[in-house]
């Protein structure tokens, strides 16, 4: 018997190994991997901060750290997790990797801008990291003035500068996605044949490009006041503190949609694949992403109901906030309906997707509590808000991110992850998450304010429950970190399309060659064409028959 | 470890039970929606799991009506939340007539309350039960937020501008008072107590309490700071606008506009007199910016209010005792 040694085919990972080929790559897939490594690092930094916070909060007194250090810990947790993990996570890792593949393109429209965006991310991230180790910052991730512009004695400006620089990374990524979607779709790939992943990344990109500059301006103005004493926000210098809040939230509310819209895109793909069904209400899901992107710019004042803002403005923002909830609920209903009469399998990515739908529903509903003016007066700046946004950001975005990483892991690495360990971890994360954050809703309504280092003893029981949950959650996150790395060497080699999904990225090898497609694909079928012979069900407004397939 | 456990905070104000009712409505609707969606997901994921023998024949056709329904129904329910919430919020934003004014100056990391009779308290606030109280708030440094969970009230306290909140306590007792806007090192220690007392106990407390600061009856700031040197002596040749009967009335300005002489106007005129010059007078008044703390400004305002008769502005601080109306 002759044993032949076959060399693995050339793909984007093995075509060159030196550092230069990675640090000067123009390949969107390699840039995605660079982002993956970077954001994982920042997730760990933010996670360590959270661990210390939760350990401290097990007792009502400040026995682990001093107040000043505690204030720095929650600030660092917020800044790292939001700007250096959540905002880039799905777009910069999965979006960068998949958008050209899903569009049948060779790369993004601007590969050099893509590499630049990673360097900007790293520059801002390292500057912020330096600030953390030089002494930290204690303003809270929201940097409210005049505390941040006049009173805080910590590294406000260097941290803010780090965020400022990283913001440009976001803008460039968004720009790239928008142009690529418009200009580089494969022949036959009309807008309504696009995967919903593309729709949601397109919508998120609109927000990235239009919203992030306002954050940059807000940070710049804080800098002018802090460094040059120009009175913009501090009344003692003739400024108005609420002006900062308007500028800050004008970006930071849409920012949460940057964090969640790509997650919606991932979930649509996972639910479709593991139901082997076109998502129910495809057009409604697609348009709802755009609606969220637009309406998301109109609701920032709901962070300011008790700030001293006019009560009439409060009423307008409250009404608009209820409106923006509607497109999100449309998605939840459509995903649920996709399961009806489908072929549902319970692979790990689907467990993450179903968990997402449940947790996002709770997070979204509690958003309605906060939009309700009279209730917000009571729960604003309490743990109720903390629980709400963690349900969406962690129960939502992080679960979607993990689901997406598992789903596309075979495509990105050519290896399968171990299914048993992965399912176990998904369940552990779900349980740990709920135990951590559900008690915080109760704590908030009881009146425990957020950002409290010490608290009245009657809040201890719920805090202990929350910290216990956090330890399970941390343990849960540890598993994927380990087995995914393990799988790089010992995982089962993956086929082109191990999960039997539609979409052009599954028509390339796993992992893809650097140039993505040997021949530019031509698209002749509708999106999610799992069962070409099936009786179609759809909810399109037009009464006409399906669009004719293009050439 | 304190093993006490409650699901809801105490209800000790007129507004608390209304806020709780709205909250419980939200909780009920949310619980139903969550259970229904989770139920469908689990049911479908089990019944239609890959390879199960369930019937999967789909009817052809449009499900547009389903989409419209599940857009319209949440929209209508949302609007019910909005309307109830906005109504209650509007009610919470308007202190009733006859509310007793208390001034509150917040600074890192303490609360200073000043009762109209001059009694001052640090971090604690004694109030009579069943009496509307309006707290006028200002900060000497950064943004703070006065939060009394048992009353379901909260209001950010800003530097440079007055804000206010009101409540009517319904139950004697002692309740937490928190700072709810992160304000630096000792934010979580910037706490106090609201002590609600029966009217007789409150009167006793007022009588027995020795004031931290001088009551208005003696040692008036208007004299100490020499305001009355200019602002007294009426007649056509007066150099400065009179302070008698000023508060709560309209003032005609040199530029032709008219403003209401409320607390914000008085504060601005003390700190930045040139901003609004009264018609018929020269801009002679010096600014007191940097020379007076917020507490002193509030005392001056209280004294100026005392120079007016019953005001049209509504809230009155002229009664010496804090009894119910």
Give the H and E element order of chain B.
Answer: HEHEEEEEEEEEEHHHEEHH
- Low-pLDDT runs of 5+ residues of chain B are 210-218, 311-325
Mean pLDDT of chain A: 93
Cα-based radius of gyration of chain A, to the nearest Å: 23 Å
Number of strands of chain A: 1
The percentage helix of chain A is 55-70%
Architecture overview:
- The complex is a heterodimer of chains A (551) and B (325).
- Chain A has 551 residues and is an all-alpha fold.
- In chain A, 65% of the residues lie in helices and 0% in strands.
- Chain A is built from 15 helices and one strand.
- The longest helix of chain A has 37 residues.
- Chain A starts with 18 loop residues before the first helix and ends in a 13-residue tail after the last strand.
- In chain A, 60% of the residues are buried.
- The C terminus of chain A is likely disordered.
- In chain B, the strands form three sheets. A five-stranded mixed β-sheet of chain B has the order 4-3-2-6-9, covered by helices on one side.
- Chain B is α+β, with helices and mostly antiparallel strands and 325 residues long.
- In chain B, α1 packs antiparallel against α2.
- In chain B, 36% of the residues are buried.
- Chain B is elongated, with a radius of gyration of 27 Å.
- The C terminus of chain B is likely disordered.
- The longest helix of chain B has 32 residues.
- Chain B is built from seven helices and 13 strands.
- Chains A and B meet through α3, α5, α10, α11 and α12 of A and α1, β1, α2, β8 and β10 of B.
Protein topology:
The complex is a heterodimer of chains A (551) and B (325).
Chain A: H1 19-23, H2 28-56, H3 67-103, H4 111-134, H5 147-151, H6 156-183, H7 196-228, H8 241-273, H9 282-295, H10 311-338, H11 348-371, H12 373-379, H13 383-413, H14 419-446, H15 460-490, E1 537-538
Helix pairs in contact in A: 2-3, 2-4, 2-15, 3-4, 3-6, 3-8, 3-13, 4-6, 6-7, 7-8, 7-9, 8-11, 8-13, 9-10, 10-11, 11-13, 11-14, 13-14, 14-15
Chain B: H1 16-47, E1 61-62, H2 64-93, E2 100-107, E3 110-114, E4 120-122, E5 124-128, E6 132-139, E7 144-148, E8 153-157, E9 163-168, E10 173-179, E11 192-197, H3 199-208, H4 221-224, H5 227-231, E12 250-252, E13 258-260, H6 263-271, H7 294-306
Parallel strand pairs in B: 2-6, 5-11
Antiparallel strand pairs in B: 2-3, 3-4, 6-9, 7-8, 7-10, 10-11, 12-13
Helix pairs in contact in B: 1-2
């Amino acid at each position: 018997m002759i044993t032949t040694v076959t060399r693995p085919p050339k793909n984007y990972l093995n075509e060159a190994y030196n550092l230069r080929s990675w640090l000067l790559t123009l390949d969107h897939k390699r840039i995605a991997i660079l982002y993956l490594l970077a954001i994982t690092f920042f997730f760990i930094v933010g996670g360590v901060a959270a661990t210390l916070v939760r350990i401290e909060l097990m007792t009502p007194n400040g026995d682990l750290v001093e107040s000043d250090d505690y204030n720095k810990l929650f600030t660092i947790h917020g800044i790292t997790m939001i700007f250096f993990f959540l905002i880039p996570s799905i777009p910069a890792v999965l979006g960068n990797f998949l958008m050209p593949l899903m569009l049948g393109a060779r790369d993004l429209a601007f590969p050099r801008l893509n590499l630049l965006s990673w360097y900007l991310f790293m520059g801002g991230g390292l500057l912020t990291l330096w600030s953390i180790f030089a002494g930290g910052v204690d303003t809270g991730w929201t940097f409210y003035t005049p505390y941040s512009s006049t009173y805080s004695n910590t590294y406000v400006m260097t941290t803010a500068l780090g965020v400022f620089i990283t913001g440009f990374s976001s803008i460039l990524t968004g720009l790239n996605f928008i142009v690529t979607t418009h200009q580089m779709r494969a022949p036959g790939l009309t807008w309504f044949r696009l995967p919903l992943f593309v729709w949601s990344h397109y919508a998120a990109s609109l927000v990235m490009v239009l919203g992030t500059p306002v954050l940059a301006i807000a940070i710049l103005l804080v800098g002018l006041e802090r460094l040059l004493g120009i009175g913009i926000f501090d009344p003692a210098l003739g400024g108005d503190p609420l002006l900062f809040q308007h500028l800050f939230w004008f970006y930071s509310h849409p920012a949460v949609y940057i964090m969640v819209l790509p997650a919606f895109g991932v979930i649509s793909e996972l639910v479709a694949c593991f139901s082997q069904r076109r998502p129910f209400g495809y057009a409604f899901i697609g348009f709802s992403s755009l609606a969220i992107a637009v309406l998301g710019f109109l609701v920032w004042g709901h962070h300011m109901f008790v700030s001293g803002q006019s009560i009439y403005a409060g009423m307008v923002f409250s009404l608009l906030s209820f409106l923006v909830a509607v497109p999100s609920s449309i998605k939840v209903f459509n995903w649920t309906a996709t399961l009806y009469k489908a072929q549902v399998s319970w692979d790990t990515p689907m467990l993450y997707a179903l968990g997402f739908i449940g947790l996002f529903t709770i997070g979204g509903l509690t958003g309605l509590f906060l939009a309700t003016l009279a209730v917000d007066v009571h729960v604003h700046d309490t743990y109720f808000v903390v629980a709400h946004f963690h349900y969406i950001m962690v129960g939502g975005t992080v679960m979607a991110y993990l689901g997406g990483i598992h789903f596309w892991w075979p495509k990105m690495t050519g290896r399968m992850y171990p299914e048993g360990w992965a399912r176990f971890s998904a369940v552990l994360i779900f349980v740990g998450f709920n135990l951590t954050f559900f008690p915080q809703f109760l704590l908030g309504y009881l009146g425990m304010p957020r950002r409290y280092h010490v608290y009245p003893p009657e809040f201890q029981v719920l805090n202990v429950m929350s910290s216990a949950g956090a330890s399970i959650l941390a343990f849960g996150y540890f598993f994927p970190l380990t087995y995914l790395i393990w799988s790089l060497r010992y995982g089962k080699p993956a086929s082109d399309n191990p999960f039997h999904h539609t979409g052009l990225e599954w028509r390339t090898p796993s992992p893809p060659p650097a140039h993505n497609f040997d021949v530019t694909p031509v698209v002749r079928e509708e999106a999610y064409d799992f069962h070409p012979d099936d009786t179609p069900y759809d909810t399109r407004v037009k009464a006409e028959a399906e669009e004719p397939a293009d050439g | 470890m304190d093993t006490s456990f409650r699901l809801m905070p105490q209800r000790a104000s007129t507004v608390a039970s209304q806020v709780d009712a709205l909250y419980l409505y939200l909780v009920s609707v949310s619980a139903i929606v969550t259970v229904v969606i989770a139920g469908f997901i689990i049911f479908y994921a089990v019944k239609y799991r890959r390879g199960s023998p369930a019937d999967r024949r789909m009817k052809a056709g449009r499900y547009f009506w389903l989409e419209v329904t599940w857009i319209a129904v949440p929209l209508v329910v949302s609007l019910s939340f909005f309307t109830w919430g906005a109504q209650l919020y509007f009610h919470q934003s308007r202190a009733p007539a006859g509310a007793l004014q208390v001034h509150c100056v917040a600074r890192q990391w303490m609360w200073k309350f000043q009762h109209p009779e001059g009694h001052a308290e640090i971090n604690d606030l004694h109030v009579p039960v069943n009496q509307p109280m309006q707290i006028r708030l200002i900060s000497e440094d950064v943004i703070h937020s006065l939060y009394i969970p048992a009353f379901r009230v909260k209001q950010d306290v800003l530097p440079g501008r007055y804000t206010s909140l009101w409540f009517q306590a319904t139950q004697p007792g002692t309740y937490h008072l928190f700072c709810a806007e992160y304000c630096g090192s000792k934010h979580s220690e910037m706490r106090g107590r609201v002590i609600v007392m029966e009217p007789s106990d409150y009167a006793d407390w007022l009588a027995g309490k020795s004031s931290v600061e001088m009551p208005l009856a003696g040692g008036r700031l208007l004299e100490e700071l020499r305001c009355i040197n200019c602002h007294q002596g009426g007649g056509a040749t007066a150099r400065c606008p009179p302070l008698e009967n000023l508060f709560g009335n309209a003032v005609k300005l040199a530029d032709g506009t008219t403003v209401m002489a409320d607390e914000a106007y008085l504060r601005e005129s003390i700190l930045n007199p040139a901003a609004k010059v009264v018609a018929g007078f020269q801009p002679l008044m010096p600014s007191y910016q940097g020379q007076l703390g917020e507490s002193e400004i509030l005392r001056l305002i209280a004294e100026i209010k005392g120079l007016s008769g019953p005001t049209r502005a509504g809230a009155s601080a002229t009664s010496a005792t804090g009894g119910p109306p």
